[in-house]
């Protein structure tokens, strides 16, 4: 953007030739004072750079304007919408599929489409926002999500549900990424822990509250409100962002064609195709097709091949979608590993913990969701307070290590669930796990965003969020494989006769769908207890596996280097009043 040059009135210009210095005139009249002046000048102490920095750092941080706060609220609202939709469908999907007469395959695609589209597009949104500015892709993302929500709410068949989830996923990937990237642009390193922490609170609430909202709507109102509820929330977010989010524009070329040449089109195509081909068989392995089948192995290998080509190709473009330079930081790379592990644990247990309440404790879907409310409330409060402590301790590393300890211990405690667990234990056991999940969700991302060059913030955050989402998909695959294998082995070691009402359990892939039937089974108490304990063993094995992964995450945090929180650099697309 060109700025007009300031004009100076010639009559007010300062010229050394016409300015009189009273001290110089006095020295000319009294030469004896010259020696005193020289001595006085020589004894003046010039502050060192460290002293100057100390003075600068003690200066009070200017308060944020009302426009900043309103723009922040708009971004937070959009992020909340994305996170709610990420977790609310799973618990409502049986109701939706039953009403619309959907097949298992259609239900599978409806559940996968949202996460997959969000995963593959996040690096793309990051690259586009670097080339064209943050706001245009943010508006497009909001529009896609808005349209997708309407399509979902009025759907009359499962194919329309899948299309709606694709649109929501494409838009949601942009909302998730750009909200965090824009806030990183708007804040300095010193401020970032506070504001990214505050931004992650609605994200964490939405993520954990999603199953509750899905259960409430599908049980007491209609599942269509899962789509309708997004419209008023986006109706708040869109005007706030449009009118109050004022970012420094990116200089653009005069023609659209030259602007489009900035993008790494081949890299985008390779990463989208590679991730899609790789993730889809991971999602259906063990459920729709066996792991050893060609339907699973062939696309897996093709996906790996495309991603390998992508890695080598990224050395060529002038502005690659994922440049090599963002992998030069040891702390940044370890943070990516931690984000991947965090995604595995978080998404897996958000999926299977409510199922435990339904299968082992025989709770309804809505009761299982409400059982997690204490975990939601306490976790968010503790995580928010922890973010305010980051500046006091001078960094994130101590909190990240503590968070991994809490998550690992909390996940291990979940294995204490038993058939007929007391109400206090049902409410209390998940609390420590929830705190670990929320703490890491708040703290890993600022750590990742802060170790890169300020101009690479969007690319660094894009790859981190994509890797965490990918971790979630891998986690669901691992948990599904564990559940099916343990169920098959355990049910065959019992005296249960799998006939009549229990006949579907001969195939372990039916075990999850059969959970809704457990409360109404007409079998003896002894037989029901055996069935419930088979389910319990499946969940406990998942918890043990995730506990081990939590320990691995803790190990990665041991080698992290602390980052300096005193930097005052803002992003190149910073907020402007």
TrEMBL record:
Any single GO CC term annotated in Swiss-Prot or TrEMBL for this entry: plasma membrane
Chief localization: membrane
Keyword Ribonucleoprotein among record annotations: no
Transmembrane residue ranges: 70-96, 108-126, 138-155, 161-183, 195-219, 225-245, 265-285, 291-313, 334-353, 365-390, 402-421, 465-483, 542-560
Locations listed in the record: Membrane
InterPro entries hit by this protein: MFS, MFS_dom, MFS_trans_sf
Species in which this protein is naturally found: Penicillium polonicum
Keyword field: Membrane, Transmembrane, Transmembrane helix
Residue ranges constituting the Major facilitator superfamily (MFS) profile domain according to the UniProt record: 71-565
The organism's taxonomic lineage, starting at the top: Eukaryota, Fungi, Dikarya, Ascomycota, Pezizomycotina
Entry protein name: Major facilitator superfamily (MFS) profile domain-containing protein
Keyword Ion transport: no
Membrane topology: Multi-pass membrane protein
MF terms in GO: transmembrane transporter activity
Region (Disordered): 1-60
């Amino acid at each position: 953007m060109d700025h007009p040059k300031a004009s100076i009135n010639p009559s007010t210009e300062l010229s050394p030739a016409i300015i009189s210095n009273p001290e110089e005139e006095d020295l000319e009249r009294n030469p004896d004072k010259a020696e005193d002046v020289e001595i006085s000048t020589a004894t003046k102490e010039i502050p060192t750079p460290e002293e100057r920095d100390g003075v600068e750092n003690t200066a009070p941080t200017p308060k944020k304007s009302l426009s900043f706060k309103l723009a922040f609220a708009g971004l937070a609202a959009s992020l909340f919408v994305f996170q709610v939709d990420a977790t609310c469908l799973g618990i409502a999907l049986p109701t939706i599929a039953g009403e619309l007469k959907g097949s298992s395959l259609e239900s599978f695609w409806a559940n996968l489409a949202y996460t997959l589209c969000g995963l593959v597009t996040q690096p793309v949104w990051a690259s586009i926002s670097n080339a064209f500015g943050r706001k245009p892709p943010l508006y497009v993302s909001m529009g896609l999500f808005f349209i997708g929500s309407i399509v979902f709410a009025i759907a009359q068949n499962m194919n329309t549900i899948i299309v709606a989830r694709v649109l929501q996923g494409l838009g949601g990937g942009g909302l998730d990424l750009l909200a965090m990237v824009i806030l990183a642009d708007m804040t300095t390193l010193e401020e970032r822990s506070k504001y990214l922490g505050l931004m992650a609170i609605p994200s964490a609430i939405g993520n954990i509250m999603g199953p509750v909202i899905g259960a409430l709507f599908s049980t007491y109102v209609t599942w269509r409100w899962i789509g309708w509820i997004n419209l008023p929330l986006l109706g708040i977010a869109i005007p706030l962002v449009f009118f109050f989010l004022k970012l420094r524009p990116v200089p653009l070329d005069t023609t659209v064609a030259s602007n489009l040449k900035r993008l790494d089109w081949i890299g985008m195509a390779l990463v989208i195709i590679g991730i899609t081909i790789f993730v889809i068989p991971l999602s259906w392995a063990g459920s729709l097709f066996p792991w050893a089948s060609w339907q699973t192995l062939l696309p897996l290998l093709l996906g790996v091949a495309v991603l390998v080509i992508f890695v080598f190709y990224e050395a060529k473009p002038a502005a690659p979608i994922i440049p090599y330079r963002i992998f030069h930081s040891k702390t940044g790379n370890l943070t990516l590993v931690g984000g991947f592990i965090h995604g595995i644990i978080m998404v897996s247990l958000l999926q299977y913990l409510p199922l435990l309440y339904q299968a082992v404790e025989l709770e309804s879907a809505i009761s299982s969701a409400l059982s997690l409310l204490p975990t939601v409330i306490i976790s968010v409060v503790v995580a928010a307070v922890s973010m305010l402590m980051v500046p006091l301790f001078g960094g994130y590393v101590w909190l990240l290590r503590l968070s991994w300890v809490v998550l690992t211990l909390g996940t291990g405690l979940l294995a204490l669930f038993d058939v007929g667990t007391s109400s206090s234990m049902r409410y209390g056991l998940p609390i420590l796990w929830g705190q670990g999940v929320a703490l890491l969700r708040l703290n890993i991302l600022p750590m990742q965003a802060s170790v890169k060059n300020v101009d690479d913030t969007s690319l660094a955050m894009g790859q981190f969020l994509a890797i965490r989402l990918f971790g979630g998909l891998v986690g669901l695959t691992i948990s599904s494989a564990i559940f099916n294998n343990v169920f098959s082995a355990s049910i065959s070691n019992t005296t249960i006769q799998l006939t009549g009402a229990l006949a579907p359990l001969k195939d372990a892939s039916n075990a999850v769908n059969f959970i809704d039937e457990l409360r109404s089974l007409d079998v003896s108490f002894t037989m029901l207890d055996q069935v419930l304990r088979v389910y319990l063993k499946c969940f406990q094995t998942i918890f043990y596996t995730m506990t081990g992964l939590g320990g691995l995450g803790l190990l990665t945090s041991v080698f992290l280097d602390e980052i300096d929180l005193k930097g005052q650099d803002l992003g190149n697309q910073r907020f402007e009043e």
